[in-house]
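To whoever is covering the structure queue this week,

Two jobs came back overnight. Logging them here so there's a record in the thread.

Job A:
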Amino acid sequence: MTRRIVGMVLALLLMAPVMASAQDDKKPAGGDPSMEQMMAEWAKYATPGAQHKLMGKQLGKWTVTTKVWMDPSALPAESKGTCEVTSMLGGRFFRSDYKGDMMGQPYEGIAISGYDIYKKMYVGTWIDNMGTMMMTFTGTCNADGSECTYKASFDDPAMKVTKGVREVCRWTGADTWVLDWYETVPGQPEHKTMEISHVRVK
């Protein structure tokens, strides 16, 4: 019943501009699109495509090893955890739930990722229990989806600066992939601050 109601509401919203202009039967060429045209466009951009299929390779459960560099010249702190990736909304989006520890504290993080067909770009968000911010990512992948690069930014409350982020996800085998995290502080060169290695649980 809920799906039917949502569908009816969406249909009414889509029909509104058409109904409002329906009185003008002599609309010039190149005017507003017909309802059929609008519905066809919505269907084209709402249907999961090849990019979503490539992202589906991450579905499942993973063990993760995280390395964090607080000081680029020092050895990284290492911790263990898990990640479970599930499909959302008919394969249009993917949710990654991370759990483990970070610098001796319980850690949880959630990523939502997808591909915006209209904008032709990969998109994502990140939240965790180590802050109250939400990060928003946009990125690109190579043709076979074996390597993707995302960019974002976040405010560092300790340093009182906005840092740039470059995240590189690369497959290193059929059941292994690595997330490399790089940060940029204004006026300083980029440096790697985190690496998360994933191994599929079979």
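Job B:
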Amino acid sequence: MKRRDALAWLSRGLAAAAASVVAVPGVQYIAGTMQRAPSVATRFRRVARLADVPADRPQLVPILGQRQDAWIHHGEQVVGRVWLVRNAPRDGDASAEANGEVHAFTSLCPHMGCQIQLRAGGESFVCPCHKAAFGRDGSRLPASETGERNHAPRGMDRLETRVAQDETSGEWWVEVKYEKFQLGLTRQVPCA
């Protein structure tokens, strides 16, 4: 074998090695983007002590969780926010369980995903982007009540909640099963 042929074979081998070093991560990148979008697992999360949720005013609380993108693992961080609405206590019943009925609604407007805010007085909610209005029960308010067109296709997205007692401290906690829903639809459809 001539020296020139040996150098040609060596350069081809080096080129193939360099191409494989670039190709393997490239294939992993393309395969990673074709996988289903990572989401926050839907499970019950403790969001607030029941004693800290007033019965007379809705309260906005963050949902904390871990998130994983294609290669990056994000630790505990805010993954969403919910409005907690606690019903007024029933007369003559002071037990925590009886006074613990709490409803949770996502803070994202079902129209385009803007953050829903509490109106002055705390009797209803409003989306600042397009003036969509919602009652304290999360229902979509008609234009006859607000004087403006309501762009929201449905009421606020209701989340599953429960009130649970901590085994060690005995305190009552509000737990929410957090999930996100598709925007612009007339019914709640969870995001994949």
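Note for Job B: The chain has two helices and nine strands.

Please reply-all if you pick these up so we don't duplicate work.
Q.
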